[in-house]
């Protein structure tokens, strides 16, 4: 499968989708390399889009392209969030580090793999030795990138990459979080609005209470507390049927005279007959 980078942008948010094998040959209009991505990033910069979301669905590919894409995203004058889905592995995990602090996200159902770099080489002993040295330096650079976005050291990530003879190990979202490779696990029930507000508040350096979602009306809160363990579906449907309080129109009382009781009004009507 060829790697594609699709970009959609408005004046407020741009979405970049990275899928497939990173660095594969370009097919048609699909952007598959750093050079193709660079043209699209110029469009984002021209729009001065303040927020960029990078969706990653890739098992990796060429390290050189991944490093260049990582640097390009990191240099954007925008708030970057990366989101990993499915199998996110190898070179794709480098791109995932381009997010702003605290904004590396991973789906609850995803798996994450980091490992030592590899290549196919040929030549004499000197050529192979030179290639081996390049691989070693590449591994050091990648581990340093992971460490730069974590509170863990380079040695920690080098050890993870070297497991299973350098093939690494697949990590669950929880393991990736514990390892310092991601910041947040995206769960289906998580409020998208609250999550976005929280990230924007952190980006602006504000406390969460300074930017918050509108408070739920008091009557809805009371309904929730009084109805106990009612299902979320039933509660949601019930709230849709709730109607605002209404006041029926009534005739204003006669301010010029005395307000009579019903019996008094009936007496007056009967008395008028005999007048």
In short:
With 275 residues, the protein is of the alpha/beta class. The protein contains ten helices and nine strands.
Q: What is the element layout, followed by pairings?
A:
Blueprint lengths: L3 E6 L3 E10 L11 H14 L3 E11 L1 H12 L4 E6 L2 E3 L1 H5 L8 E4 L3 E4 L10 H24 L5 H8 L7 E3 L1 H7 L4 E3 L5 H13 L13 H9 L5 H10 L20 H12 L2
Parallel strand pairs: 2-3, 3-4, 4-6, 5-7, 6-9
Antiparallel strand pairs: 1-2, 7-8
Helix pairs in contact: 1-2, 4-5
Explain how this protein is built.
The chain has 275 residues and is α/β, with parallel strands linked by helices. The chain has a single domain (4-208), classed as 2-enoyl-CoA Hydratase, Chain A, domain 1 (Alpha-Beta Complex), CATH 3.90.226. Helices cover 41% and strands 18% of the residues. The chain contains ten helices and nine strands. The chain has helices at 34-47, 63-74, 91-95, 125-148, 154-161, 173-179, 192-204, 218-226, 232-241, 262-273; strands spanning 4-9, 13-22, 51-61, 79-84, 87-89, 104-107, 111-114, 169-171, 184-186. The strands form two sheets. The protein has a six-stranded mixed sheet. The longest helix has 24 residues, at 125-148. It is elongated and about 130 Å long. Mean pLDDT is 77; it is low at 208-231.
How does the major sheet shape up? 6 strands, mixed
Helix proportion of residues, in percent? Answer: 40-55%
| Alpha-beta classification | alpha/beta
The CATH topology name reads: 2-enoyl-CoA Hydratase, Chain A, domain 1
- Rg from alpha-carbon coordinates: 31 Å
Q: Architecture, CATH level 2?
A: Alpha-Beta Complex
Q: What's the rounded overall pLDDT mean?
A: 77
Which series of helices and strands comes N to C? Answer: EEHEHEEHEEHHEHEHHHH
The general outline is elongated
Q: Give the strand content.
A: 15-25%
Distance between the termini: 102 Å
The number of helices is 10
CATH superfamily: 2-enoyl-CoA Hydratase, Chain A, domain 1
Q: What's the number of extended β-strand segments?
A: 9
CATH C-level category:
Alpha Beta
Low-confidence stretches: 208-231
Number of domains: 1
Q: How would you write the strand order of the largest sheet? A: 1-2-3-4-6-9
């Amino acid at each position: 499968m060829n790697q594609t980078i699709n970009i959609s942008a408005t004046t407020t948010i741009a979405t970049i989708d990275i899928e497939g094998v990173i660095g594969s040959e370009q097919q048609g209009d699909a952007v598959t390399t750093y050079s193709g991505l660079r043209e699209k990033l110029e469009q984002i910069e021209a729009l001065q889009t303040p927020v960029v979301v990078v969706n990653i669905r890739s098992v990796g590919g060429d390290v050189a392209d991944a490093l260049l894409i990582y640097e390009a995203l990191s240099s954007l004058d925008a708030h970057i969030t990366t989101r990993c889905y499915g199998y996110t592995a190898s070179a794709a995990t480098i791109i995932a580090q381009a997010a702003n602090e605290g904004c590396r996200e991973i789906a609850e159902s995803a798996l994450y793999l980091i490992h030592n770099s590899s290549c196919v080489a040929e030549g004499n002993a000197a050529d192979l030795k030179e290639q081996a040295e390049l691989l070693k330096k590449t591994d050091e650079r990648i581990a340093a990138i992971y460490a730069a976005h974590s509170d863990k050291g380079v040695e920690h990530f080098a050890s993870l990459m070297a497991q299973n003879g350098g093939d690494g190990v697949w990590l669950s979202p929880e393991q990736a979080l514990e390892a310092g490779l991601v910041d947040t696990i995206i769960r289906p029930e998580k409020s998208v609005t609250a999550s976005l507000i929280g990230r924007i508040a952190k980006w602006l350096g504000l406390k969460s209470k300074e930017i918050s979602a509108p408070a739920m009306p008091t009557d809805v809160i009371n309904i929730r507390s009084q109805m106990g363990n009612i299902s979320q579906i039933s509660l949601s449907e019930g709230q849709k049927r709730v109607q605002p309080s209404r006041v029926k129109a009534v005739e204003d009382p006669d301010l010029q005279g005395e307000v009579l009781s019903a019996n008094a009004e009936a007496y007056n009507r009967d008395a008028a007959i005999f007048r």
